[in-house]
Amino acid sequence: MIVTTKKLFEAAYGKYAIGAYNINNLEQAMGLFRGNIESQAPFIIQISKGARSYTHKSMLEAIIRAADVLFPEAIFAVHLDHGDEETCYDAINSGFYSSVMIDASHEDFETNVAITRRVVEAAHAKGVVVEAELGQLGGVEEHVAVDEAGAKLTDPDKAKEFVERTGCDSLAVAIGTSHGAYKFSGAQTLRFDVLAEIQKRLPGFPLVLHGASSIPQEEVERINAAGGNLKGAKGVDEDLFKRAAELGVTKVNIDTDGRLVWVRVHREYLKEHPEAVDFRPIGKIFMAEYAKMIAHKNEKLGSAGKLPEIRKMLGLA
Ligand SMILES: O=C(CO)COP(=O)(O)O
Ligand SMILES: O=C[C@H](O)COP(=O)(O)O
Ligand SMILES: [Zn+2]
Ligand SMILES: [Zn+2]
């Protein structure tokens, strides 16, 4: 069942975080639903602009709606990830997305407030919730280099003003992470001091952590052993998720770790089976491995095992 993140965040706040997983295709969708049902967790499906154009936005919608029927127990939000204003309105008016992110964090503060307010007004009129962003991560999506990311940390005082002026339902904050496989140049890690100051000014308000893939070194080593070349890849320590949840993070965004599973499975299989001509055995291995990754993440986030209570909270059997 598709729900907004509002009730999921209310249930999780201060205790655990909900996994927000980017998907683009059939195999990721199947692995995602299997992994969340196996670990009995509510979850958030993240659809980026890149995912909407990978095949077609209607194709991905059809896949997810079919999965919803195949996995009737699942409780999830459908969320536009890193939307611009135009894409947000398309998602809000689609009757499919229950949540959108308006990412205007690269604009100046007043412009970000103005754009976010417009999206909030349109979204709330349709019962859709809004994630906004203040501060900038480094990495593949943001407009700053990874080592500049520190300079773009979220200002706690500005965060309070931003939320009050925009009416957004959750806030993506920059506390040292970056998108992609190469985070933390040097020994940097999550700036819990900044996060604590934001929570102090916005008690009970849902915060979002982008760039939260952990880039498992075992995964990197297997990819490189099978012909890959990921040098210096580094991510977020999964054991920090629980502390982040205590400090108000209710949504943790994970995309790159799923991509690493795909790369490892395909490189290893094709290396071990040079005679392969059928893609289905590889696809089946990927779906199983992706589901395993999702279930593992939910254990680390603390959302594993929470599905029954969420269903009960929603008045479902
Ligand atoms: O923030 C993300 C999606 O919005 C994903 O971050 P990663 O690149 O760390 O997976
Ligand atoms: O950072 C954004 C997400 O990882 C989505 O990435 P993408 O735009 O390559 O689909
Ligand atoms: Zn951004
Ligand atoms: Zn992101």
Automatic annotation (TrEMBL):
Cofactor(s) the record lists: Zn(2+)
Coiled coil, from the record = none
Origin superkingdom: Bacteria
**Pfam families with a match to the protein in the record:** F_bP_aldolase
The record ties this protein, via InterPro entries, to: Aldolase_TIM, Class_II_FBP_aldolase, FBA_II
Q: What is this protein called?
A: Ketose-bisphosphate aldolase
